[in-house]
């Protein structure tokens, strides 16, 4: 099966900081976002029109249209052109990715969707500024258009930022996310390798018993409080066309607060586990598993609480930072192959069967442990058994 390798090295990282937004800067940021949202929606409309008449709608053409839009609308000219141009760049990248997935004939569930219209009540404010659109002076962030906000410097920036993203979370807090160039931080070599298999009962099962990641269950622990606040929201939900009450806004804020805490707990657990794995192993073979299909299964809630994608993301980033080698292994047949002899079962194992028994060599082991061993073999990190492992073809039959 195909595997891809990710090597560590220097790259870019984001450093996020909380912002203290004044009563003047807050409305200015919202107004700037309204202009960028209008530009985005115009790009979506132009793209759909161009697609209907089979015309090209690239960023160069949209830039020319932006010049005309700003000339014809005085309220659009009052804002800075930098975030508006970045909105066009973001739209073009999103559209290009969707067209590429269609060209490659990916399954519908795996395709990136075409850009859609952004509604005012469903889209969080997000503004992107390039280097010419902002500057740091006396600990404050000066944005193009005369907007000045105070940054809470919880840590120092390692280098001069190349761009910044201003956004507001579900609780109404403003943040600035700076993109900076970071150098690699290599760790001492250990000469060890590890295989990792993702799951639901255990988020990560590895070839090392001491590095398994059990299901943390952060969402399950907070489900009681979350359900209480959600019922409160349902009782206080305003009728269509009516203004939200103070009680409804408070309940919605409490729901957002619980969700944010769960996200941070999952991220913290993933980062600590990833740091421990990267510090102890030089080469890591990871199942390139995309759990999107689990959202439509009976395990959807538990799979979402396991946060497999977030954990995998943190592991890859941590490996790049510390110059470790990551091998992304294709997940096909990893639960059917034997990690000892390479034989493949004739049928798919049901999820209820948690023990793997090889019909050729007679090896008996945990199903997830066997899959983690297969990751090592497929990545070529198991020299003792690599020559005896068959990656493709019919199952090995026992000699008479």
Description:
40% of the residues lie in helices and 19% in strands. It has a domain of 172 residues. The protein is built from eleven helices and 15 strands. With 400 residues, the protein is of the alpha+beta class. It has a seven-stranded antiparallel β-sheet with strand order 3-7-8-2-6-5-4. Pfam families: Cas12f1-like_TNB (PF07282), OrfB_IS605 (PF01385). This is Transposase. It comes from Streptomyces klenkii. One of its GO terms (biological process) is transposition.
Please describe the structure with a list of short key phrases separated by commas or semicolons.
400 residues, alpha+beta, 7-stranded antiparallel beta sheet, 6-stranded mixed beta sheet, 11 helices, globular, disordered C terminus, DNA binding, DNA-binding
What would a concise description of this structure say?
It comes from Streptomyces klenkii. The chain is an alpha+beta fold.
Topology record:
Blueprint: E1 3-6, E2 11-20, H1 25-52, H2 59-72, H3 74-77, H4 81-103, E3 126-130, E4 134-137, E5 140-143, E6 147-151, E7 163-168, E8 174-182, E9 193-198, E10 202-206, E11 213-214, H5 218-221, H6 223-236, H7 246-280, E12 283-287, H8 300-306, H9 308-321, E13 325-329, E14 355-357, E15 364-366, H10 367-378, H11 383-386
Parallel strand pairs: 9-12, 12-13
Antiparallel strand pairs: 1-13, 2-6, 2-8, 3-7, 4-5, 5-6, 7-8, 9-10, 10-11, 14-15
Helix pairs in contact: 1-4, 2-4, 6-7, 7-9
GO molecular function: DNA binding
Keywords: DNA recombination, DNA-binding, Transposition
Domain Probable transposase IS891/IS1136/IS1341: 185-289
């Amino acid at each position: 099966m195909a595997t891809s390798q990710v090597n560590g090295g220097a790259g870019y990282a984001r450093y996020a900081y909380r912002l203290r937004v004044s009563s003047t800067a807050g409305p200015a940021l919202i107004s700037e976002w309204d202009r960028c949202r209008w530009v985005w929606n115009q790009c979506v409309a132009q793209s759909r029109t161009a697609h209907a008449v089979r015309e090209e709608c690239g960023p160069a053409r949209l830039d020319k249209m932006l010049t005309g839009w700003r000339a014809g609308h005085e309220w659009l000219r009052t804002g800075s052109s930098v975030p508006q141009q970045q909105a066009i760049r973001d739209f073009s990248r999103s559209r290009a990715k969707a067209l590429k997935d269609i060209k490659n004939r990916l399954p519908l569930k795996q395709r990136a969707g075409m850009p859609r219209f952004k509604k005012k009540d469903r889209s969080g404010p997000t503004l992107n500024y390039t280097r010419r659109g902002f500057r740091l002076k006396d600990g404050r962030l000066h944005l193009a258009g005369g907007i000045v906000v105070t940054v809470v410097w919880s840590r120092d920036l390692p280098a001069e930022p190349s761009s910044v993203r201003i956004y507001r979370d579900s609780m109404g807090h403003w943040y600035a996310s700076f993109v900076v160039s970071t150098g690699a931080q290599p760790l001492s070599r250990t000469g060890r390798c590890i295989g990792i298999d993702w799951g639901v009962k255990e988020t990560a099962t590895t070839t090392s018993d001491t590095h398994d990641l059990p299901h943390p269950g952060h969402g399950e622990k907070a489900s009681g409080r979350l359900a209480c606040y959600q019922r409160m929201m349902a009782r206080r939900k305003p009728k269509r066309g009516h203004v939200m009450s103070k009680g409804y806004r408070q309940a919605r804020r409490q729901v957002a607060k619980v969700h944010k805490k769960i996200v941070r707990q999952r991220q913290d657990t993933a980062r600590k586990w990833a740091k421990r794995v990267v510090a102890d192993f030089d080469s890591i073979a990871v199942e390139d598993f995309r759990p999107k299909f689990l959202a439509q299964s009976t395990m959807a809630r538990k799979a979402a609480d396991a946060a497999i994608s977030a954990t995998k993301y943190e592991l890859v980033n941590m490996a790049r930072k510390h110059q470790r080698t990551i091998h992304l292994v294709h997940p096909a047949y990893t639960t059917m192959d034997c990690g000892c002899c390479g034989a493949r079962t004739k049928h798919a194992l049901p999820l209820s069967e948690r023990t793997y028994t090889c019909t050729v060599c007679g090896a008996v082991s945990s199903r997830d442990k066997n899959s983690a061993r297969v990751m090592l073999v497929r990545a070529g990190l198991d020299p003792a058994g690599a020559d005896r492992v068959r990656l493709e073809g019919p199952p090995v039959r026992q000699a008479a």
